[in-house]
Write a structure and sequence with these properties.
82% of the residues lie in helices and 0% in strands. By secondary structure, the chain is mainly alpha-helical. The chain has one domain. Required for nicotinamide riboside transport across the inner membrane.
Length: 211
């Protein structure tokens, strides 16, 4: 696309995709800041993207949005309950390298299997890439809900791969969104790491004072 055609594309962007892009971006911003408001934004964006991805034959991404919708409800409830009990959100924690290596190996095998089934039995485009990004995104969302620090590193890789996928499907606004996603994933990791260190320092101080 030249500059003029790109400008016209964004000017005439479908309203639903525009709303989906804005709310999805707000989700990442709020999540990076550890704000519970990330979940209402996720509910709106996932509902819209379910229809958008189905329409362009990215069926695994469409199914993934349904999962995101359910996890947004669960995440909202979990974070809210933790805040009501202790006046704080769920604590941020980390998992071992061994845990992540096993998870990655299992997710790759599962993604290839799902990709094979999609390539064989459905008309979906890019079945293996679509399947791999989907299974990793499912796991990454689970890590967000549980407030595992390393979730952001998964999202950096998922977002980079997704940029290629959406450009190929002529979803330029969504591809641009995922460029921002990549940056915010790095920002989110830094922010959560700071909160993780502060949280541990507070716990250490409290334990010392109680001795």
């Amino acid at each position: 696309m030249d500059f003029l055609s790109t400008f016209n594309y964004y000017l005439n962007m479908p309203v639903l995709e525009l709303i989906a892009v804005i709310t999805a971006l707000l989700y990442v911003i709020f999540a990076a800041k550890g704000s519970i408001w990330c979940w209402p934004m996720a509910l709106i964006s996932t509902l819209l993207y379910t229809a958008i991805f189905y329409d362009v034959y990215l069926w695994m991404d469409s199914v993934l949005q349904v999962y995101y919708f359910a996890m947004a409800i669960i995440g909202w409830l979990n974070w809210q309950q933790a805040k009501q009990k202790s006046s704080h959100l769920l604590p941020i924690h980390t998992m071992t390298l061994g845990f992540h290596l096993k998870a990655i190996a299992g997710l790759v095998v599962l993604g290839m299997l799902v990709g094979y089934l999609m390539a064989t039995y459905t008309p979906t485009d890019f079945p293996f890439i679509d399947a791999l990004t989907t299974v990793f995104a499912v796991f990454g969302t689970y890590l967000v809900v549980k407030r595992v620090l390393e979730n952001w590193l998964y999202w950096v890789v998922i977002d980079l791969v997704s940029i290629f996928l959406y450009i190929e499907k002529d979803l330029q606004p969504t591809a641009a969104l995922f460029v921002f996603y990549t940056g915010f994933a790095l920002f989110g990791f830094i922010q959560w790491y700071k909160m993780y260190r502060l949280q541990n320092a507070e716990q250490l101080s409290l334990a010392t004072n109680n001795e």
